[in-house]
Write a structure and sequence with these properties.
heterodimer; A: 14-stranded mixed beta sheet; 15 helices; 31% helix; B: 4 helices
């Protein structure tokens, strides 16, 4: 399976563009010729600075065919963040599209990275397959865009292990016509929602991510293209359930919701809206190739936090999160007993790129410590109860407080900072920040805001700001983000629009 | 109340609400009634749902019954027009 890259057709429902299998082969052959001419060879790393369009998938296949490693990056990152990733990953080449900002292109060029437009295919069609199973296939940067980047490395072997596990547990029939409205630079959207169905020979319908105007037309989109499968995140469903007319054609056979907790209430609403009972909470982590557990047959009562069984993985709930301690039977929690969720799967990442220290903290003897809290119920199903990861889950996309802290700390007049998660009616969580500045004049606040805007992607910018005298710390001197959040919520946040407006 | 006064009152209420959900860097005072709320950078695209909830709660507009055209919420002027149509 998959070694011959047996792809399905791809359609962009919005533009109406469609590449069938023959066209994909032809487009990919041209890109292989062009990449080879540019010197891309085995083990070279290539940035894909765009996504969610036909050309992205063709570029990916071309890179793989030459034995290279693809690094899809979020097109919304600032040039500061992209430069940080360039310094960490040392790519040979970056492929851009017509929407890549000139600032990013200039930065890449200045950093010595060759740049080529995806539309510039050249005319030399080449067919080659230099894929080696243990070569790096993908690096997905999950955090550290402003500091020490954390890149999850998947080999062709680990990706195939994920896809073959999904095929074993779910089959491919329900994925015949798959819709992906998620970004292709993160695991859920790329590895599972897009590549699993597509590289199984099924048809993929790809849209730009998180477009509310598309979500509001979701029902008609499903009907028009006879969509059989889609995956999404709770924030998107909040919008669709409220504003989109349900599909009428009854084509949906399976629906996944992932990347953020799914309540039983929303679960039932999605079932009603989609017209299928086969809706499940797909548990996925980039390090495990995304979907690693769920309900193969999802026609069961909805339960808050219910995941299900492992898909090509063994799940253990342990009473420790210490990856340096040897694990014994005494560490295994009994049915119903909450603890830390650990996973063992052949789809586990090779490790974090050039960060063996981080890998050692996350993986012990092949077991991955997820940072999630949960329990195994009486029937052997995983139920999640929370998480202990230092991240903000903004509508399924993870924002790392440390990335934002790192930028604010570099601002010359910062004395201390703490970024934390705020409850948000749409996204589930959003970004709040407490800052201690040397002076709290409006001019300084405006200068800080401007500094942050030039260093952080828009999606990471805080929505609420507090200026405080000191960041509360524990007796050990550590910051407890929840405690800082609680302290801030007793105070009035800054009226940032007003402060920034005065400086306009 | 005169129609123009009613519209002004509704506008003031809407601006007040938008101020609570807007992004920091865009002074709402700089926005004209026909300026695009999302394209101008005032609000996040998914914040449209918060506007919907505001209109449902404040004016009793039932979007699930009446269907929804995103253009109706594209600008302050369009939203005020919608309120006038639904709550004459």
């Amino acid at each position: 399976m998959l070694l011959d890259l047996n792809v399905g057709n791809i359609t962009e429902p919005v533009s109406g563009r469609r590449w069938d299998q023959a066209e994909i082969r032809s487009q990919t052959a041209l890109r292989i010729g062009r990449l080879r001419k540019l010197g891309i060879a085995q083990k070279d790393r290539v940035f894909l600075a765009f996504g969610n369009r036909l050309e992205f998938f063709s570029e990916l296949l071309a890179i793989w065919s030459l034995g290279g490693c693809a690094i899809p990056i979020d097109s919304r990152l600032t040039s500061f963040e992209v430069e940080n990733l360039v310094n960490a990953a040392s790519p040979e080449l970056a492929v851009i599209d017509d929407e890549t900002p000139q600032e990013i292109i200039s930065m890449l060029t200045a950093a010595g990275v060759k740049v080529v437009a995806t539309s510039d295919t050249g005319s030399d069609a080449v067919t080659v397959n230099s894929i080696h199973l243990d070569n790096d296939a993908l690096i997905l940067f999950t955090s550290g865009s402003t500091g020490d980047p954390k890149g999850v490395v998947h080999t062709h072997r680990s990706l195939r292990a994920r896809w073959m596990s999904l095929r074993d547990h779910l089959g491919v029939e329900a994925f015949r016509r798959t819709l992906c409205m998620l970004p292709t630079h993160f695991g859920h959207g790329l590895i599972c929602n897009s590549l699993f169905p597509w590289l199984s020979g099924n048809d993929l319908y790809i849209t730009q991510p998180f477009r509310p105007d598309l979500v509001m037309k979701l029902g008609s989109l499903i009907d028009e293209h006879g969509i059989t499968f889609m995956s999404s995140v709770p924030a998107i469903w909040k919008l669709a359930l409220r504003l989109a007319k349900p599909p009428q054609s009854g084509t949906l056979q399976r629906v996944h919701c992932g990347s953020a907790p799914l309540s039983s209430h929303m679960w039932d609403d999605i079932r009603k809206w989609t017209g299928t009972q086969n809706v499940c909470n797909a548990y996925g982590i980039t390090e495990t190739g995304s979907w690693v557990a769920g309900l193969s047959v999802a026609d069961v009562p909805a339960v808050d936090g219910l995941i299900g069984q492992g898909w090509g993985s063994v799940i253990r709930v342990l009473n420790t999160n210490d990856t340096f301690q040897s694990i014994g039977p005494d560490n295994i929690c009994g049915p119903g007993e909450s603890g830390y969720v650990w996973l063992n799967t052949p789809a586990l990442m090779k490790g974090y790129f050039n960060r063996d220290d981080l890998t050692a903290k996350a993986v012990s003897d092949g077991w991955f410590m997820t940072g999630d809290i949960g329990f195994i119920d009486e029937t052997g199903r995983l139920v999640l109860r929370g998480r202990e990861r230092d991240e903000i889950n903004k509508g399924g996309m993870k924002v790392f407080p440390s990335d934002i802290d790192a930028v604010v700390e570099r601002f010359g007049r910062t004395k201390d900072v703490c970024t934390f998660a705020l409850d948000d009616p749409i996204y589930g969580q959003n970004v709040g920040i407490a800052i201690v500045l040397e002076d709290t004049s409006d001019d300084t606040v405006r200068a800080l805001y401007s500094w942050m805007k030039s260093h952080l992607a828009e999606s990471k910018m805080p929505v609420r700001w507090w200026m405080i005298d000191a960041i509360p710390r524990t007796s050990r001197g550590k910051i407890n983000r929840d405690a800082v959040k609680a302290a801030c919520q007793e105070l009035q946040p800054l009226d940032m629009p007003s402060i920034l407006g005065k400086g306009a | 109340m005169k129609m123009t006064d009613l519209r002004q009152n509704r506008r003031a209420g809407l601006i007040n609400f938008l101020r609570g959900i807007q992004k920091a860097g865009m002074p709402i005072e700089n926005l004209g009634d026909s300026d695009r709320l999302v394209a101008s950078g005032l609000i996040d695209s998914l914040a449209i749902l918060q506007i919907v909830m505001y209109l449902e709660q404040t004016y009793g507009i039932n979007f699930s019954a009446n269907g929804f055209d995103p253009e109706q919420l594209g600008s302050i002027g369009n939203i005020l027009d919608l309120i006038e149509r639904e709550c004459p």
